[in-house]
Design goal:
This protein has a single domain, classed as TIM Barrel, CATH 3.20.20.30. It is built from 14 helices and 12 strands. The strands form 2 sheets. Strands 1-2-3-5-8-9-10-12 form an 8-stranded parallel β-barrel, surrounded by 7 helices. The protein has a two-stranded antiparallel ribbon with strand order 6-7. α2 packs parallel to α3 and α6 crosses α7.
Amino acid sequence: MKPVGLILDSDEISGLLPLARDAEAAGFDSIWATELYRTSFEQLSYVSSVTKNIKLGTAVALAFVRTPLVTALTALDLDEISGGRLILGLGTGARRTNEMWHGISHGKPVARIKECIDVVRLVTEKAGEGALRYEGEYYDINTKGYHRPFRTVRNNIPIYLAGVGGGMCRAAGEKADGYLGHVVCSERYLREAVMPEIKAGLEAAGRERGRFNVASIITCAVSRDRKRAMEAARATIAFYGTVRTYEPPFRLHGFTAETAKIREAFLNGDVKSMIAAVSDDMVNTFAVVGSPDECRKRISSYREILDLPILSAPHYYIDFEEVREYQKTILEVFGS
């Protein structure tokens, strides 16, 4: 079975347990927890107790709302809890949510995330060796008097960096062990915008592509009822169309008029009009929808670019019973 990941999602946190067990039983490579309405680390800690071998990824842990020391220690704890299965997916978050929801400064995100990764690596690799020192523009750290007395399961926890814009994709190639693409990173966007920047980052750091993993989240609705599946995916794309950070893929495909309508409807609190503004072309560009054979074929096409497709059922603005239906078909169609 070629590696495939699954996004964990449930309306009740207890619902994550059977989903994680089913993903492992189906032979999935990894399960990934998002961070918006729940925290990613706690979700993965919860499901680690009912799984043994499947990798556990954060998709993504917000890098700027925690100190790098807290992020690193949490990662080390979760890696120990899971027996060395963590993939630490980090993302900067959007400026608006960082500043308005979390009350923190966003700064220059590319420069800041590079420093953050440096510090996280320093802590995970050297935390048992005594005081740590790091001097940067955003992080000036001196842990004098600190000594972590616990053994680590691994001191080289893989870090994947999420990104949409060129600078962040290049930073992934330069600093991280892998790249984590966003839900609206189409095949064309990955080929034309993401991969060249990753290549530039790898070359700048003197690193090999074969030692770097490229993953991306993909909205997937496997169903014989194409119209219903299209509507479900349409709603998820509408949600992401409201965020300016994710605008480059929409712009590349010429969907600027549609995204303007989505944002106008969002500001008016009109969810129905938001969803209606998402064209069929947008759905077919940013989601994998259709019969089992059609979806397998599309994911095979993504594999020409990706080392790891991470499949996500549509989940915004639809009933959670329907979400569970799409999760079940993903497991059936892409499992071993």
